[in-house]
Design goal:
The chain is of the alpha/beta class and about 950 residues long. Helix content is about 35%, strand content about 20%. Strands 1-2-3-4-5-6-8-7 form an eight-stranded mixed beta sheet, with helices on both faces. Helix 13 links the parallel strand 21 (about 450) and strand 22. The two termini are about 20 Å apart.
């Protein structure tokens, strides 16, 4: 391990890969004594103007003294960080701790002077902003609370870096220099700025992969049938609008299937934006190096043999990602199925899918290539399953997800104008905390439907590196729903929900009208609505003699009614039904639905393939004999132009070119989704209803209340003092009560009673009536086992109860009995908070008792919890009616319960060292509540988390 000259260990946890504003990557790491030559080389490439701005005077070269100063740090009072690409410095930042007089100092001084220098060729890429986030995090870790910077007035770029960061700051001007001082404590604005920059950078990095101006397929063999040759053919056949190159070191030809061919990327005289790597794993490092030197911006690695093959493959995978990032490239894969972009301006099929999907409004992400194939097939085939076709905007199959993950693609789809609905198949979630944050923001703009595979296996699939989580799948699922994610269990449900959300408006409520020509099918639909928590109206039976015009009139009438939010049409074929009648019925339904464009319409059909096809009108991925006339086909959109590619925008198709199979249909007619079973249609509709309600609630998100009686500083001092005794500390009863009391959480005193006499003395201190209970681990919180005696009114009853407990369960030393004053009668509940290594801080609530534990009736919310979330948390458990006067009982004080939840949330949010809190039982009475038991566990807070500086996952 490296150490500084002053003996401090090299802080390896400060190393990080970051995505820059243009979508490229850089590595940030501490500067060490070994970097002298790199520093000198870097400085030589900086312009005289930038040197002048840094040193306030002409400074053509660094002296030996300067080099020593800028490379020798103690990693505490003097710290330097460098951003590197290809192992070379592109920018540096350093801080020096100072005292109030501006002189060098050590702790407890909490101010430091900070200065940056960015190579001119890399200015404008957001390097300084990323370095500021990381040096600020380092400074906070070392006890520095404030930065000061002196900047020349003409150095507008650096002034903007500081002022745009979102920190609370002061500005002054003296002796021709602008002095900026700013606190390093993160603010809501600084976090918003950081997350906005993260979104733009990560979205741009994915956009460079999905909209390249040129693509090289490396490993395209001479003979058809290989992986590389197949990808090359798919790119060519899709009509990729940019430049296409074939690369294979064994090639002698100048062309391969009409595509320019080269033996190495280095031989290509034009820029290459994207490389598809399809060579054996041992050859990949050589290929990556060649791509990096050539300036390739991103890689899709379809080669297998990495973490999917075992520990040695996992090591190779880590090296692959490090190598690619060192050149500023991002990777999809390895073991990836590929990527697709159906935009007419791109037409990219860099995948193993033999046909280009039809353009549409659905973004599709799959970690599994096999599931990706199944989803593409389901979305685009006619007949069977979900009939009708809705197209895809972009498709990403990430394979081992070594670098680019679902989080990155979510960042891209968030503001992608060509994507209205996002469907994701996930086998693991590498960073659930970040995923829920991004999902919440995305879901507020467009539906996000997720199915998770391998959810009951307990281990991630081979090739997936994920943080361990202690949360059960049901809890993670609940947290995703809280973030607005539409959680489904199968890919069939994924497609069912996706088709409805892509084709129809969101329902305004749960009221559902049902009409059709089959009474039985209508009743099945009615029952399915009730099972899904919807409010169906009595079904309208049009009888089997109903004509298309009868359906049109009935649907138009149902949609015009104010008491209806959605309509489900059920249809069975008549004897001798013809395709013409199918088309007539489809046209009738579309015509009626067009008159009420704000209400969704779904069709449940029985063996009515003709109707399903007619409803989705000319939506086949099969080659068309001729392009349909404009407006002749139902469709989803005319695709808008995508954001410009990373470096070169491919030209539009030439005039007069035929519209390729897969063109977007006209947008003037709304597709109606058809389902072969009532349960599937209603399940999809129910998900849309719940999501629409979440959207309405999210528009008024609530707030985290401030409580004047909270002693945050006192709690911090107590926690620091307690942790000085050691790691992983479970607090004693008195210590826990004091800490909770600083946040306004009062715990009823429980006095130990090792003997009957001690029990009597404790009761005199507390006052009768009292409770006597055991605190032994095997009996604690288990009133059902008889380890608690309540309402003991005098000494005689207390002594008798003490004797009963010891006779039944063992000696006082085994039982650890305590005496506690009786609390007002109410409903026993449990409040818990835990810091999960993957999901972050989670607040949980449920009723106390074996029944709730057995049924898993516990609700969860991510911390910090708002007032609206606290109210919904109380009401979301199945046994919530017991709190609101069930069967004539008195309603309890839920307002006091919500305040308790908010105070616990504040405690764990303010102090990440509080890794677990358990309040059990919490007796909620008609007026007020009583916390009868509390456990608190402390541990050192993680150095970095999702609230820290931007960083790519560690490999």
């Amino acid at each position: 391990m490296q150490t500084s000259p002053d003996g401090h260990a090299y802080p390896a946890h400060w190393e990080a890969d970051v995505v820059l504003r243009d979508g490229g990557t850089a590595r940030i790491r501490p500067i060490t004594v070994d970097d002298a030559e790199r520093l000198v080389s870097f400085y030589e490439q900086v312009s005289d103007e930038s040197k002048y701005y840094r040193f306030f005077a002409p400074y053509p070269r660094l002296s030996a003294k300067d080099v020593h100063r800028f490379t020798h740090h103690d990693f505490v009072d003097r710290v330097g960080l460098a951003a590197t690409v290809g192992g070379e410095f592109i920018a540096t930042v350093r801080y020096d701790r100072i005292n109030p007089d501006g002189l060098p100092a050590s702790a407890p001084a909490d101010e430091a002077e900070v200065a940056f220098l960015v190579q001119d060729a890399h200015q404008g890429r957001g390097v300084a902003s990323a370095l500021l986030e990381h040096i600020a995090a380092v400074a906070r870790e070392r006890g520095i609370r404030r930065f000061a910077a002196e900047v020349l007035p003409a150095n507008n770029k650096m002034i903007k870096v500081f002022t745009d960061a979102g920190y609370t700051q002061k500005r002054s001007f003296e002796d021709g220099v602008v002095r900026l001082e700013f606190d390093l404590e993160p603010t809501d604005r600084s976090r918003a700025v950081q997350w906005a920059r993260e979104q733009r950078a990560e979205a741009r990095s994915v956009q460079r992969l999905l909209a390249p101006g040129s693509v090289a397929v490396i490993g395209a063999g001479r003979t058809p049938g290989g992986v590389g040759r197949s990808v090359l053919a798919n790119l060519r056949d899709a009509g990729f609008t940019g430049r296409l190159f074939a690369v294979n070191k064994a090639l002698q030809e100048k062309e391969l299937d009409g595509v320019p061919a080269y033996r190495s990327v280095r031989d290509i005289t034009e820029p290459v934006d994207l490389a598809v790597v399809a060579v054996p794993a041992p050859r990949v490092p050589e290929v990556v190096a060649e791509c990096g030197v050539h300036g390739v911006q991103g890689l899709v690695v379809v080669s297998a043999g990495y973490a999917d093959s075992g520990p040695e493959g996992r090591r190779l995978q880590r090296e692959l990602v490090r190598q690619a990032r060192s050149y500023g490239m991002r990777i999809i894969g390895p073991n990836a199925f590929g990527v697709i972009n159906t935009s007419p301006q791109v037409r990219l099929n860099a995948s193993l899918a033999p046909e280009m999907p039809r353009p549409g409004r659905i973004g599709l992400f799959a970690q599994s290539g096999a599931i990706g194939i199944a989803l593409l097939s389901r979305l685009h085939r006619r007949g069977g399953g979900v009939t009708g076709v809705t197209g895809v905007s972009t498709f990403v199959s990430s394979g081992n997800r070594a670098d680019v993950s679902g989080n990155d693609v979510l960042q891209y789809w968030y503001d992608d104008p060509d994507t209205d609905v996002v469907l994701m198949y996930l086998e693991s979630i590498g960073n659930p905390r970040k995923f829920t944050r991004l999902a919440r923001r995305t879901a507020a703009a467009k539906p996000l439907v997720v199915v998770q595979g391998a959810r009951h296996g307990g281990v991630a699939p081979l090739g997936h590196t994920v943080r361990p989580t202690r949360l059960p799948y049901a809890t993670v699922s609940a947290l995703l729903r809280q973030a607005g994610v539409i959680r489904v269990d199968t890919i069939t449900e994924l497609v069912d929900a996706g088709l409805l959300l892509a084709r129809q408006p969101l329902p305004q409520g749960p009221r559902v009208a049902i009409l059709g020509n089959s009474e039985s099918l209508g009743l099945l639909t009615y029952d399915a609505c009730l099972a899904q928590g919807l409010r169906p109206l009595p079904p309208l039976d049009l009888t089997t003699a109903a004509s298309a015009e009868d359906f049109r009139r009935a649907l138009a009438h149902a949609l015009s009614e104010g008491g209806c939010d959605a309509v489900v049409v059920t249809a069975i074929p008549a004897v001798g039904e013809t395709s013409a009648r199918d088309a007539a019925l489809a046209e009738a339904l579309r015509s009626a639905s067009a008159e009420a464009p704000t209400k969704p319409v779904l069709v449940v059909h029985v063996e009515l393939g003709g109707l399903a096809e007619a409803l989705s009108a000319a939506a086949s991925t099969a080659p068309q004999a001729a392009a349909p006339a404009p407006g002749a086909a139902d469709g989803t959109r005319t695709p808008a132009a995508p954001a410009p590619p990373a470096s070169r925008t491919p030209g539009p198709p030439g005039e007069g070119q035929p519209t390729p199979a897969g063109s977007a249909p006209a947008p003037d007619r709304r597709l109606i989704p058809a389902y072969p079973a009532a349960e599937r249609a209603v399940r999809a509709l129910a998900e849309a209803v719940r999501y629409a309600q979440w959207r309405r609630d999210a528009a008024q998100p609530g707030k985290v209340p401030e409580y004047e009686d909270i002693d945050e500083k006192g709690a911090a001092a107590q926690i620091d003092a307690l942790l000085a005794r050691g790691e992983g500390l479970t607090l004693g009863t008195e210590e826990a009560c004091v800490l909770l009391g600083r946040y306004g959480i009062d715990v009823r005193r429980a006095l130990p009673a090792p003997t009957p006499g001690d029990a009597v003395e404790a009761a005199r201190t507390l006052g009768y009536p009292v409770a006597l209970k055991t605190t032994a681990p095997h009996l604690r919180h288990r009133a059902d086992l008889g380890g608690v005696r309540l309402d003991l009114a005098d000494e005689e009853q207390l002594r008798r109860a003490y004797t009963e407990l010891t006779d039944l369960f063992g000696t006082p030393q085994e039982l650890r009995p305590v005496v506690q004053a009786m609390a007002p009668r109410g409903v026993d509940t449990v409040v818990r908070a835990v810091i999960d290594p993957a999901a972050g801080a989670v607040l949980s609530f449920g009723l106390a008792g074996a029944a709730s534990e057995l049924l898993g009736d516990t609700a969860h919310r991510l911390v910090p919890v708002t007032d609206r979330e606290a109210a919904s948390l109380v009401r979301s458990i199945r046994t919530a009616p017991l709190l609101f006067g069930w069967r004539g009982s008195a309603p309890v004080d839920t307002a006091a319960l919500e305040e308790l939840l908010l105070r616990v949330s504040r405690l764990v949010d303010d102090h990440p060292e509080v890794v677990a809190v358990s309040l059990e039982p919490v007796v909620v009475a008609p007026h007020g509540l009583s916390v009868l038991g509390a456990t608190v566990r402390l541990a050192r807070a993680p150095v970095r988390d999702d609230l820290g500086p931007r960083t790519l996952p560690v490999v």
